[in-house]
């Protein structure tokens, strides 16, 4: 038969955890796997600003006709401003354009195909470690993948090793950087580190591709955009992938953008024509709903301010959970060992737990996290921090 030679591949290591967690009957289970925000009730709610925008759309939308290859122009405008800043010179001089994509993952796939088709022979450099899907997306597009060191086996950010490798990267290659809330480690570069990375990117003539999936979850909506705006202001060409999954809670509505910054408007038009052409072969035109919601929220001062407050609430809760877990680990003499949890930013913590310890946590304590030791801090139930700390103490 035609399909005889087809074998089975393992399920996705992150998404697979959702099913395993759901099937665990233990009422004391912890879901620290897939990167979704949870509130104090353990729910991933739809933000109120999103609900209000959706209601407006239901009442006012009068067609479901296709939106163009670059998506909704209103969305493109507001996402450009959210990422690059409303006072961005690039926007004012028409040197930056957003192409709407199905989620941040879609933006990454579009970037990968753009590199493969329009910049043939260029490799991409990923942090070690990185989000596992970065590896497979670029490989699927036929782009050669290499790595620069980021966090070592001692679970510390190693900026010197990172810079030393970037200094050896062949001219013209693409370097993928995490704007904030590094996935999976939670370790972010400080401003002086970013400045040094910028110097290397400039001197080696590398093309930066900045993945910006967690805007607002690190130090704040504006603060988290600092490195993106620095690179966009200082370099002639930058690619940025933006996601609305987390900060708008639009996970399943697949809302994101690939923002391209170029030296002049003519080049922007060239590149955007290629992106629309590539996107046509990938998903034709992007899904509308999530982007229409984002455009509605960011285009209305009241909704925008409500949304910004909601993002800040999520951010502060994550910060409190980090502090709370460290406090809960104190009685076990583990606060120092896990002090990095307080330094890391965003949803994720590279805990430093080994795959065997992660397995033990899952098998004996129903604590679910990625085998790399990545825990989604935003999934912790604050009322059961003691229980989580006790489970961790039992496996280390
Ligand atoms: C994660 O890393 O858990 C999230 O980005 C969700 C995903 O798609 O993997």
From TrEMBL:
<keyword id="KW-0032">Aminotransferase</keyword>
<keyword id="KW-0663">Pyridoxal phosphate</keyword>
<dbReference type="InterPro" id="IPR004839">
    <property type="entry name" value="Aminotransferase_I/II_large"/>
</dbReference>
<dbReference type="GO" id="GO:0004838">
    <property type="term" value="F:L-tyrosine-2-oxoglutarate transaminase activity"/>
</dbReference>
<keyword id="KW-0808">Transferase</keyword>
<dbReference type="Pfam" id="PF00155">
    <property type="entry name" value="Aminotran_1_2"/>
</dbReference>
<dbReference type="InterPro" id="IPR015422">
    <property type="entry name" value="PyrdxlP-dep_Trfase_small"/>
</dbReference>
<comment type="similarity">
    <text>Belongs to the class-I pyridoxal-phosphate-dependent aminotransferase family.</text>
</comment>
<protein>
    <submittedName>
        <fullName>Aromatic-amino-acid aminotransferase PhhC</fullName>
        <ecNumber>2.6.1.57</ecNumber>
    </submittedName>
</protein>
<dbReference type="GO" id="GO:0004069">
    <property type="term" value="F:L-aspartate:2-oxoglutarate aminotransferase activity"/>
</dbReference>
<dbReference type="GO" id="GO:0005829">
    <property type="term" value="C:cytosol"/>
</dbReference>
<comment type="subunit">
    <text>Homodimer.</text>
</comment>
<dbReference type="InterPro" id="IPR015421">
    <property type="entry name" value="PyrdxlP-dep_Trfase_major"/>
</dbReference>
<dbReference type="GO" id="GO:0033585">
    <property type="term" value="P:L-phenylalanine biosynthetic process from chorismate via phenylpyruvate"/>
</dbReference>
<dbReference type="GO" id="GO:0030170">
    <property type="term" value="F:pyridoxal phosphate binding"/>
</dbReference>
<dbReference type="InterPro" id="IPR000796">
    <property type="entry name" value="Asp_trans"/>
</dbReference>
<feature type="domain" description="Aminotransferase class I/classII large">
    <location>
        <begin position="29"/>
        <end position="392"/>
    </location>
</feature>
<dbReference type="GO" id="GO:0042802">
    <property type="term" value="F:identical protein binding"/>
</dbReference>
<dbReference type="InterPro" id="IPR015424">
    <property type="entry name" value="PyrdxlP-dep_Trfase"/>
</dbReference>
């Amino acid at each position: 038969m035609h399909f005889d030679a087809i074998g089975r591949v393992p399920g996705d290591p992150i998404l697979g955890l959702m099913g395993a967690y759901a099937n665990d009957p233990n009422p004391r289970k912890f879901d620290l796997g897939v990167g979704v925000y949870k509130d104090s009730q353990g729910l991933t709610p739809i933000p109120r600003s999103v609900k209000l925008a959706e209601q407006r759309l239901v009442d006012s939308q009068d067609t479901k006709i296709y939106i163009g290859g670059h998506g909704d122009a209103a969305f493109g405008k507001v996402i450009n401003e959210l990422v690059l800043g409303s006072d961005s010179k690039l926007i004012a001089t028409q040197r930056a354009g957003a192409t709407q994509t199905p989620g941040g993952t879609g933006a990454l796939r579009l970037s990968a195909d753009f590199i493969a088709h329009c910049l043939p022979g260029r490799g991409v450099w990923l942090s070690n470690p990185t989000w596992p899907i970065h590896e497979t997306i670029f490989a699927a597009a036929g782009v050669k993948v290499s790595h620069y060191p980021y966090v070592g086996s001692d679970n510390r950010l190693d900026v010197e090793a990172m810079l030393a490798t970037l200094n050896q990267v062949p001219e013209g290659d693409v370097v993928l950087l995490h704007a904030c809330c590094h996935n999976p480690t939670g370790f972010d570069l400080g401003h002086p580190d970013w400045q040094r990375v910028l110097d290397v990117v400039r001197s080696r003539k590398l093309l930066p591709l900045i993945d910006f999936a967690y805007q607002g979850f690190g130090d704040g909506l504006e603060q988290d955009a600092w490195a993106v705006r620095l690179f966009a202001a200082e370099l002639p060409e930058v690619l940025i992938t933006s996601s609305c999954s987390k900060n708008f809670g639009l996970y399943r509505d697949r809302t994101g953008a690939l923002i391209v910054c170029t030296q002049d408007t003519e080049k922007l038009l060239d590149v955007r024509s290629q992106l629309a052409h590539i996107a046509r072969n990938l998903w034709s035109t992007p899904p509308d709903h999530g982007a229409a919601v984002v455009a509605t929220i960011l285009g209305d001062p009241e909704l925008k301010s409500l949304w910004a407050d909601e993002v800040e609430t999520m951010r502060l809760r994550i910060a409190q959970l980090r502090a709370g877990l460290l406090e809960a680990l104190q009685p076990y003499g583990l606060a120092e060992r896990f002090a990095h949890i307080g330094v890391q930013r965003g949803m994720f913590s590279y805990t430093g737990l080994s795959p065997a310890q992660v397995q033990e946590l899952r098998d004996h304590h129903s604590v679910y996290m990625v085998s790399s030791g990545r825990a989604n801090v935003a999934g912790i139930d604050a009322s059961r921090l003691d229980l989580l700390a006790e489970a961790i103490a039992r496996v280390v």
